[in-house]
TrEMBL record:
Name of the molecule in the record: Methyltransferase
Composition bias type Polar residues, residue spans: 37-48
Secretion signal, residue range per the UniProt entry: none
UniProt record, GO biological process: methylation
EC id: 2.1.1.-
Family named by the database record: Belongs to the N(4)/N(6)-methyltransferase family.
PROSITE patterns: N6_MTASE (PS00092)
């Protein structure tokens, strides 16, 4: 039986990160609020996350989340602070994967480098079900930016992972968060963490990173500000710890 454990922290990501000890986790894998979703500053900063990221014909009433109304300068400063704290708590050689969309890819790469991470590449996530874009191309990809705290530590974790993944977002009763990532995708990504290591997600949402980590024999520490989503995450993590993957 796996000795992997999990912990969920209640509160703001930056506040909680500042309380975590140095060199205490082996990887950071996170899906922060994109602060994206609009062609103009007004639409990016004045709409709720649900309005920006959920189709008008969606057949669910999942809760909204806060922290998604920053402009680009605010987002850059905020992400630099967040990722700087993540660097401090990550052991030397540990990896970072941080999700973003096409709009936020440049500024997110700036933030992780300003925070001190060594940027290693971009891992596209191909979404087979994507909205059509009249006059152009479907927005069929989101991206995980890959970085490390110093040199790649291949000796401790000699994996050779794909640089491109295809997976559909959960649908129906399996959808428990408005920007939920597919579990099969997250189970692949957590393999970048050393075996039996600890994965940190400062924006845990419904806990998919943690469920994936436990399923792959890694421990998990998550932070979530929303009480509703934190309850969902804790329920899913409890089940995952017992071997039930949800």
């Amino acid at each position: 039986m796996s000795s992997a454990t999990w912990t969920m922290f209640d509160g703001d990501a930056l506040d909680v990160l500042r309380q975590l000890p140095n060199d205490s986790v082996d990887a950071v894998i996170t899906d922060p609020p994109y602060n994206s979703g609009g062609a103009s500053s007004t639409s990016r900063t004045n709409q709720t996350a649900r309005k920006k990221y959920v189709s008008s014909d969606a057949q669910h009433d999942l809760p909204d989340f806060t922290g998604d109304q920053r402009d680009q300068r605010g987002y850059l400063a905020w992400m630099t602070l967040i990722l700087g704290q993540c660097l401090r708590v990550t052991r030397t050689g540990g990896p970072l994967l941080v999700f973003c969309d096409f709009r936020q890819l440049p500024v997110t790469s700036d933030a992780l480098q300003a925070a001190g991470w060594v940027w290693r590449g971009v891992v596209p996530w191909h979404k087979p079900i994507a909205r059509p874009q009249l006059g152009g191309f479907r927005r069929s990809c989101e991206y995980a930016l890959w970085a490390t705290n110093g040199p790649v530590d291949a000796a401790r974790n000699p994996v050779s992972l794909p640089g491109l993944y295809t997976a559909s977002q959960p649908r129906g009763s399996h959808r428990v968060h408005i920007t939920q990532k597919p579990l099969e995708l997250m189970r692949e990504l957590v393999k970048v963490c050393v075996p039996e290591g600890t994965v940190l997600d400062p924006f845990a949402g419904s806990g998919s990173t943690g469920v994936a980590a436990l399923a792959e024999g890694r421990s998990f520490q998550g932070v979530e500000l929303s009480p509703a989503y934190r309850r969902v995450a804790e329920s899913r993590l409890s089940q995952a710890a017992l071997g039930t993957i949800v």
